[in-house]
């Protein structure tokens, strides 16, 4: 179908693919981007919080026309048991700045916008095209791709694998292993529509201000998991995700968890009267630093979720995806500028540049968290939340019991549930992993 | 909770979604088996679109029409050869309006 040979083929039009394609096309490289969805975003799911700084580095004036929902002025962290939540809340008027730091977005709309920018920068974008195979030469260098469209292979000097968490191409070509069940979370999500003034009233917001809630606790039924509620302009994104290995073991149904979260007495009033317009599911890479696969080879680089570049502790993924896509694009531009071939030795530049960025540094910082949370999920997601709720209730309920006795009861409950040694070791291990 | 109630609830959810089904070309298949493995059996509970069900012979079957292409079943059962997993042809399958 296409005879020309490209400087680069980008597989996927998600956050990482769009960042890579935009970066290269805007520097004059001949870029072909292939996306299997009917339109960019039609296959993608996100919470979604978008971090301005990482997009600003790619498209500085994005605020002029990007479809942004609300800029965040408030974040709540909730530890939940079946009837209560204990929370931490941070709100600051400082976030009402000229160039806000974080926004909520709706991925299908955002990806369409980003893709338009990619086209304007000069890339050729083909949707409804699933890449089925990488094409290699006799030496094993990736030299192009085959698609499910009629016609032969399409050739390029380098292929950017921005194919997301499932990464079929990379795994089938043996470039990396398939994600393990304990290093990916399955998240389900619903879109709840409400008039904007109702959302503003319920969350104490004005105009485009937004508020988000991240919640953990017994809502994940002792599995390692997290739930979220994000305010958009006229809708609320609400979802929950847990490790696939935990789902397989407990056989809990994701939609049953989601419905229970929706009906929790702390959440129900926030979404009362809403109209649900979509139900979605997607995996999130949660393996962290230790799960990062080989990132480059002869004729290829991997970016974003395909390379497991996702910070599950902070619920950040799109910014790591955009940054790795941009850096891969910059490395390719540099190698082309030196008139060097796109072979492994030269493409190692991508990894060198990525290692210096916040992407790898942040993942390195939390390298022990996934193991810790996975092996202690019952304590972190069942026992401690219940204890916290009991402690808070003990503290607040005034019933004539002397305070000293209440304090003793709280301490005793913690020790009984987890033993003194268990508690200490959990705290020490959490601190070490977090450090 | 009975299966029927759960199933009804998921179907109601999937009904909100847009799909372009590729007739006669299911993108996921279960390999014939005598007894399902623990992971294959788990899919009858944990697939978020409830695409997997147990037939009356005790084997697991799939109807991937409502599939959201999440990949959970692939991560659990592709390597063991129990299922064959592919993306639908370009443009087909689930089409998220919001995502
Ligand atoms: C429920 C949920 C909530 C999240 N919340 C947040 C959040 O609040 N903030 C945040 O920063 N991150 C969040 N993330 C993570 C974030 O969504 C991802 O890290 C990010 O989307 C990764 O971008 P990507 O470009 O690597 O992959 P994707 O966005 O998944 O894009 C991959 C693209 O490749 C296409 N593709 C795949 N294979 C092929 C093929 N063979 N041929 C053609 N096209 C192909 C797909 O259709 C898709 O468009 C969340 C994720 C989930 C699931
Ligand atoms: S990909 Fe996800 S939604 Fe589709 S059948 Fe497998 S588990 Fe179910």
TrEMBL record, chain A:
Pfam families in alphabetical order: ETF-QO_FixC_C, FAD_oxidored
Cofactor entry: FAD
Keyword Flavoprotein belongs to the record: yes
Gene Ontology MF term list: FAD binding; oxidoreductase activity
Record Gene3D superfamilies: FAD/NAD(P)-binding domain
InterPro entries, alphabetized: FAD/NAD-bd_sf, FixC-like, FixC-like_C
Keyword terms, alphabetized: FAD, Flavoprotein, Oxidoreductase
UniProt domain FixC-like C-terminal: residue ranges: 369-435
Family: Belongs to the ETF-QO/FixC family.
UniProt function note: Could be required for the formation of a functional nitrogenase Fe protein. Probably accepts electrons from FixA/FixB and reduces a quinone. Part of an electron transfer system.
Protein name, per record: Protein FixC
Organism: Mesorhizobium erdmanii
TrEMBL record, chain B:
Gene Ontology MF terms in the entry: iron ion binding; iron-sulfur cluster binding
Keywords in alphabetical order: Electron transport, Iron, Iron-sulfur, Metal-binding, Transport
UniProt KW Metal-binding keyword: yes
Record-linked InterPro entries: 4Fe4S_Fe-S-bd, 4Fe4S_Fe_S_CS, Fd_FixX
Domain 4Fe-4S ferredoxin-type: 58-88
SUPFAM superfamilies: 4Fe-4S ferredoxins
Function comment: Could be a 3Fe-4S cluster-containing protein.
Name of the protein in question: Ferredoxin-like protein
Source species taxonomy: Bacteria, Pseudomonadati, Pseudomonadota, Alphaproteobacteria, Hyphomicrobiales
């Amino acid at each position: 179908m296409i005879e020309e040979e490209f400087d680069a083929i980008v597989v996927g039009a998600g956050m990482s693919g769009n960042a890579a394609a935009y970066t290269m096309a805007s520097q004059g490289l001949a870029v072909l981007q292939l996306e299997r969805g009917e339109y960019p975003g039609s296959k993608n799911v996100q919470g979604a919080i978008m971090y301005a700084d990482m997009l600003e580095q790619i498209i500085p004036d994005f605020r002029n026309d990007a479809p942004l929902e609300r800029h965040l002025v408030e974040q709540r962290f909730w530890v939940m048991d079946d009837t209560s939540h204990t929370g931490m809340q941070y709100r600051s008027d400082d976030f009402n700045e000229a160039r806000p730091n974080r926004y909520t977005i709706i991925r299908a709309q955002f990806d369409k916008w980003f893709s338009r920018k990619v086209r304007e920068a000069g890339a050729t974008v083909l949707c409804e095209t699933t890449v089925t195979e990488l094409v290699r030469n006799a030496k094993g260098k990736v030299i192009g791709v085959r698609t499910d469209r009629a016609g032969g292979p399409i050739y390029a000097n380098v292929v950017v694998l921005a194919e997301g968490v499932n990464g079929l191409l990379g795994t089938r070509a043996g470039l990396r292993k398939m994600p393990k069940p304990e290093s990916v979370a399955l998240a389900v999500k619903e879109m709840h529509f409400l008039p904007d003034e109702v959302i503003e009233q319920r969350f104490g917001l004005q105009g485009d201000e937004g508020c988000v809630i991240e919640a953990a606790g017994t809502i994940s039924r002792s599995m390692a998991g997290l739930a979220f509620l994000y305010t958009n302009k006229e809708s609320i994104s609400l979802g929950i995700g847990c490790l696939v290995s935990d789902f397989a073991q407990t056989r809990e149904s994701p939609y049953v968890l989601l419905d229970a979260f929706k009906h929790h007495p702390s959440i129900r009033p926030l979404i009362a009267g809403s109209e649900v317009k979509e139900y979605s599911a997607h995996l999130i890479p949660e393996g962290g630093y230790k799960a990062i696969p080989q990132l480059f080879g002869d004729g290829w680089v991997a970016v974003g979720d395909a390379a497991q570049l996702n910070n599950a502790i902070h619920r950040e993924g799109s910014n790591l995806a955009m940054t790795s896509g941009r850096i891969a694009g910059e490395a390719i531009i540099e190698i082309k500028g030196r008139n060097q071939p796109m072979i492994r030795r030269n493409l190692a530049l991508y990894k060198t540049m990525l290692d210096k960025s916040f992407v790898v540094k942040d993942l390195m910082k939390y390298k022990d968290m996934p193991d810790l949370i996975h092996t202690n999920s019952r304590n972190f997601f069942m026992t401690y939340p219940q204890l916290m709720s009991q402690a808070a209730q003990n503290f607040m309920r005034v019933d004539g019991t002397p305070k000293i006795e209440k304090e003793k009861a709280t301490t005793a409950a913690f020790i009984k549930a987890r033993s003194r040694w268990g508690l200490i070791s959990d705290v020490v291990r959490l601190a070490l992993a977090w450090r | 909770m009975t299966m029927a109630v759960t199933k009804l609830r998921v179907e109601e959810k999937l009904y909100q979604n847009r799909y372009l089904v590729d007739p006669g070309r299911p993108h996921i298949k279960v390999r014939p088996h005598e007894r399902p493995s623990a992971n294959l059996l788990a899919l009858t509970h944990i697939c978020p679109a409830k695409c997997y069900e147990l037939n009356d012979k005790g084997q697991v079957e799939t109807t991937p029409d409502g599939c959201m292409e999440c990949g959970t079943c692939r991560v659990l059962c592709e390597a063991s050869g129990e299922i064959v997993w592919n993306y639908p042809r370009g443009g087909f399958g689930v089409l998220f309006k919001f995502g």
